[in-house]
Amino acid sequence: MSQAAIIALSIFIITYIFIILEKFHRTIVAIIGGLLMIVFGVLTQEQAIDHIDFNTIGLLIGMMVIVSIASETGLFHYIAIWSTKKVKADPIKLLIILSLITAFGSAFLDNVTTVLLIVPMTFNITNRLKINPVPYLLGEVFASNIGGTATLIGDPPNMMIGSAVKELTFLSFMNNLAPVCFLVLLVTIGILAFLFRKQLTTSTVLKEKLLALDEKKEITNAVLLKKCLSVLLITIVGFFSHPLLHVETAVIALLGAFILLLWTGGKYLESALKKVEWTTLFFFIGLFVIVGGLVETGLISALGKKAIEITGGNVTIASFLILWLSAIVSAFVDNIPFVSTMIPLVQTMGDLGIKNLEPLWWSLSLGACLGGNGTLIGASANLIVAGLAAQLGVKITFTSFLKIGFPLMLISILISSVYIYLRYLW
User: Fold this and answer.
1) Taking CA 387 as the corner, what is the angle to CA 113 and CA 371, rounded to the nearest 5 degrees?
2) pLDDT in tens, 301-318
3) How far is it, in rounded angstroms, from Cα 421 to Cα 426?
4) What does 256-303 look like in DSSP terms, one character per residue?
5) Could you tell me which residues come within 8 angstroms of residue 350 by beta carbon, excluding any fewer than 6 positions away?
6) CB 248 within 8 A of CB 56
7) Interhelix angle for 358-370 vs 398-420, to 10°?
8) Per residue in 289-305, pLDDT tens?
9) Residue 109 contacts residue 67 (beta carbons within 8 Å)
10) Which of 176, 210, 378, 403 pairs with 10 at a CA distance of 20 to 30 A?
């Protein structure tokens, strides 16, 4: 191993340890790690910039701007009350419909944004019905990670995979991942409803009070809402048309965002940009540079050769190895640095002999995204929900989450294993 490779590996391991320990903010750690790659001569500044995936960055910025403006309209509060009335305020049916809405929202927005919007609404409803909010919060967390797995734009790992593998389009992700995600979602919600069935009860009086609410009053700006929905629809159509347009998804998302800003007269420019999660974006940038150091020093190539030796070049063994490894690792550490390391590894496995990489990509996506349901620290959405709950006096501990999340995660990966085998490998 060369000196540059030793330095790159050391920076990678130390950075990863600090990210896991969470003693310092992960964005600061990632950026310092990336800069150290340049300072110690592992990468030049130009090489570092080349390794930053600006398509992922641009896609996230565009979607964050659109959603932040849409949140000004009262749309999400309207959906909460409307959905509660549709199920007659029945607590178990409410768990099901809120989870389904969260999954759908996470598929077409992003899971972090979706839970930020839906958790306050959930507390509003559960407080009115005097029900324990924890089953609903858990359902929304799990649904968020599952729904985000179904599309290219739902979860950052998918954005990264889609940016790295151009032939995997928006439609490819939906066609290959949405069916299994829908099945996993139904199983997960069913198990949760069964586990918490005795807690999910309320009085007839409280139901009637909630059913008397007028959800239309929640819409504070109907004109802005029409503009937001129009732009969001056009943007999603653009994602579907991406293979025909030959335009990157980042360009489509950013164009949609800035058309919306232009259409609203620039009134929301500053507030929308303030709501963009810049810390998350810089975290991505740091990781792209760190992994770039591993690629440039040949460490990823060496790992690829080792993986080929272990699997014997067998695509079935490789797929299951990636699926289960991704799930277990992503349950305990952030899936973003893991996926950023795995992408060049899978590409190298293709260069070294595995011809059909498609099952490997879907295995990586399913493992990394669904694995986040395993523990409280497995995904950003989990931590955000726990943080919001704590602010409102509800504590979700690591252990309580683990007892429910980890078995559900294992069931979801078992379902995914059967799906991957039957659809691609049989």
Assistant:
1) 65
2) 777 677 777 877 788 998
3) 6
4) HHHHHHHHTTTTTHHHHHHHS-HHHHHHHHHHHHHHHHHHHTTHHHHH
5) 357
6) no
7) 160
8) 988 898 888 887 777 67
9) yes
10) 378
